[in-house]
Amino acid sequence: MKIDHIFMGSESPDEHVKILVDFGLTEGEPNSHPQQGTAVRRFFFENSYFEFLYISNLNDIKSPTTRPAQYYERITANDNQTSPFGICFRPGGNSLDFSNYKSWSYRPKFLPHPFKMDIYGHKLSDPILCYMGFVSDESFKKRITQHHQIGFKDITLLRILSPYAGLDSKLKKDLNKSGLIKFKHDETHTLEFTFDDAKQNKIHDFRPQLPIIFKW
Question: Domains of the chain (ranges plus CATH)?
Answer without folding.
Answer: 2-215 (3.10.180.10)
